[in-house]
């Protein structure tokens, strides 16, 4: 959503009575006049700070002027509003729309939890299986000449892998060593 569209949406809220007082509007106008890049020229700033016109009229004219200038100018207005009237900035209708969650959007925190909900035991089990398969592949590789070390490791592994699996691995290693 562009800042100009947001400003159009927030215009009634900002221009309603007693939302912004004269001092805050003057601070915003001065900030827009002095900020780099300069949003309001000196003549425009004087026009929007004119005490002869009513606050409602000056503020309405300022908001319309910023909308005509473009998105960057509206963005700077929101920045000035946040600096000078943070509570009002947080209460803007467009901010409330931005804060409400989109039902089609993926909640990354929830997704992260859903991917990691199995815990460390599951990780250790998967890691053990992967390490066992790597060791088994190393032992079964026909180019490998060192058969005694893996046999010793597999001989001491009834705790890690079941007795039946260990027996199958030992039989396979014996068959390889005979060939």
TrEMBL record:
<dbReference type="GO" id="GO:0031966">
    <property type="term" value="C:mitochondrial membrane"/>
</dbReference>
<dbReference type="InterPro" id="IPR001315">
    <property type="entry name" value="CARD"/>
</dbReference>
<keyword id="KW-0496">Mitochondrion</keyword>
<comment type="subunit">
    <text>Associates with BCL10 by CARD-CARD interaction.</text>
</comment>
<dbReference type="GO" id="GO:0042981">
    <property type="term" value="P:regulation of apoptotic process"/>
</dbReference>
<dbReference type="InterPro" id="IPR011029">
    <property type="entry name" value="DEATH-like_dom_sf"/>
</dbReference>
<dbReference type="InterPro" id="IPR043574">
    <property type="entry name" value="CARD19"/>
</dbReference>
<protein>
    <recommendedName>
        <fullName>Caspase recruitment domain-containing protein 19</fullName>
    </recommendedName>
</protein>
<feature type="domain" description="CARD">
    <location>
        <begin position="38"/>
        <end position="96"/>
    </location>
</feature>
<keyword id="KW-1133">Transmembrane helix</keyword>
<keyword id="KW-0256">Endoplasmic reticulum</keyword>
<keyword id="KW-0812">Transmembrane</keyword>
<keyword id="KW-0472">Membrane</keyword>
<keyword id="KW-1015">Disulfide bond</keyword>
<dbReference type="Pfam" id="PF00619">
    <property type="entry name" value="CARD"/>
</dbReference>
<feature type="transmembrane region" description="Helical">
    <location>
        <begin position="120"/>
        <end position="138"/>
    </location>
</feature>
<dbReference type="InterPro" id="IPR042146">
    <property type="entry name" value="CARD_BinCARD"/>
</dbReference>
<dbReference type="GO" id="GO:0005789">
    <property type="term" value="C:endoplasmic reticulum membrane"/>
</dbReference>
